[in-house]
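Protocol step 4 of 5: obtain the predicted structure for the target chain.
Materials: sequence only (see below). No template structures provided, no constraints applied. The aim of this step is simply to have a reference model before the mutagenesis design in step 5. Sequence pasted as it appears in the construct record:
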Amino acid sequence: MAFNFKYFFQTLLSSFYYLLYVIIFFLIIEILFRVIIFFPTNIEVFKYGFKKNIIFDIVDLSKLQIHVTDKSKKISEKKVSNENVWIFGGSTTQGYGCKGAFSSSWPSELSKINNNFFYKNFSFGGATSDQLINLLYQNLKRGSPDVIMWSSKFNTEYIYGATDYRNKNILKYDFPHSRKTNFFLNIKRIDKTLKSYLISYSFLDKIFTRVMSILYNKGPINLSNIEINNLDIEYSIKNFELNLIETIEISKKNDVKEFYIISLPSKYDLFKKKILRFELYEKSIKEIENEFYPYVKIIDLTFKKKIDDIDTLFCDDIHQTLKMNQIIANRINKKINLFSRILN
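Step 4 output (structure tokens):
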């Protein structure tokens, strides 16, 4: 049987046109995604995939809060008014964790004794450094403060069950208790190249990842029901460390004049047995302070000796009473008097 060159050529040409149509279709989809995302973000969205410094992230999927940022550029060109200090942390910094309205927060108490302290508190219960750095990026669009206080000590554990934590592509570590969710996620066989170049693919991937995590896990993981190994702890601190370093670099680039790492006290300080995650946390922030000093300074408030009236200071292991918030505010203010040129 003779080889039909004409038929072969026509088949090859048809396949080429089919492939071209598919490429054009996905190209149109990608352009549409970028145009849609451009409106709530900025023109940097059109550079994503072509410039390595462009990052894309969803701050809050439910509110469709998205940020696209060129990390090599200054984000804000002005100072925010009436907010010279921005504070980022979890529930211990949000405050009011004990006795409800009869309690307080250390930022609130600090503002009562320091007339130069005008703050915006971005802290909320359960906040991880992944979420806090997204909040920083989002708010830098309206301006920058003079001072940032970063108090993210107690929530490093909340990424133990995460499948899509912020620095996963760098650390290349999967938390064991996320494998069940990852089983579904890995069906997609996510191509890292596609995620690095296509906004549409990356956006749908983030939606799929978070929706599957919510549907499968039925809400946040209960840390008391899972076994944590030392590698989990080490990588959660490494993730925190990468976020903090990026936060400091972005703060410097955007004319934040002073950066303080607030290491809050807790009942854990008085435990006889050392707790690995806090040991690694302290080691990490000291290394970061050494690297960025004098721009970055640690305000270490951990207890160094036994406290007799400890139960009047905390309503659990970490959340402070009004009395403790006042003590913390006074201790921070003393450090500010030594360190700050802005808040004195």
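Step 4 remarks: The mean pLDDT is 84. The two ends are 94 Å apart (CA to CA).
Proceed to step 5.
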